[in-house]
Amino acid sequence: MAPHTEQLTRPAVQLRGLTRSFEGRTVLDGIDLDLPAGQFTALLGHSGSGKSTLLRAVAGLDHKVAGSGQLSAPERVSVVFQDSRLLPWRRVLANVLLGLDGKDAERKGREALAEVGLKGRERAWPNELSGGEAQRAALARSLVREPELLLADEPFGALDALTRIRMHTLLRELWERHRPSVLLVTHDVDEAIVLADRVLVLDQGRVGLDLTIDRPHPRSYRDPLLGDYRERLLTALGVTEDHK
Predict the structure, then answer these.
(1) Where are the domains of the chain?
(2) Distances in whole angstroms, Cα of residue 36 to Cα of each of 60, 140, 201
(3) Is the pLDDT of residue 1 over 50?
(4) Is 163 left (phi over 0), alpha (psi -120 to 50) or beta?
(5) pTM
(6) Mean pLDDT, range 112-124, rounded to an integer
(7) What is the CATH number of domain 7-76+147-243?
(8) Sign of CA dihedral 209, 169, 154, 94
(9) Please, which residues bridge with residue 206 across strands?
(10) Any bridge partners for residue 161, and if so which?
(11) CA dihedral sign of residues 126, 129, 135, 138
(12) Residues 182, 81: contact at Cβ < 8 Å?
């Protein structure tokens, strides 16, 4: 299911001339980029290519990046990291509600946990959760804030293959239900193709490839029609199928 056409006419994120250097090394080199509202975008690139740096800029976590060019993003932004970052001294529901108040906060937190399949686990401690359950709780913590923009920095990188596939299905279902803009940072070409409607490849500080994935959802890793997209992305990354 594709985002509504009228929604995609509104940019959620606009970057103009965004640059970031570390100790004289330019990581982001004058990037211009628009991310339409409601679009699911994946960001690929080699280690050190600037993927997480770009995500941190959009999240407003790196003011040196944000100050070097024009950047606009929604007010309600949530971030999901590779580590769930649950506080071990707080129960699951308390982690989800961290920083929230108001009479409806607990109800919304319970609803968010139910959405990610953790109904009944509200009183559990983080160390009682599996890796997949912890990431589900992290997603619930992001969703309860009703974000206009969801930033995900390799959120499934530490999970086993089967759990990762299940989390892919969950994330896509949640996106279709809530329709935030999503920027997913990943090293996994197949993950990007299966989840996203648009895939960007960072290369030498710039967007080297901007590819629309024009295939209906749900998608399967085994779909032979995704092979051309995979080949184009691997080529942009400087990788051949023989050396994947």
Answers:
(1) 7-76+147-243, 86-146
(2) 18, 23, 17
(3) no
(4) alpha
(5) 0.90
(6) 97
(7) 3.40.50.300
(8) positive
(9) 203
(10) none
(11) negative
(12) no
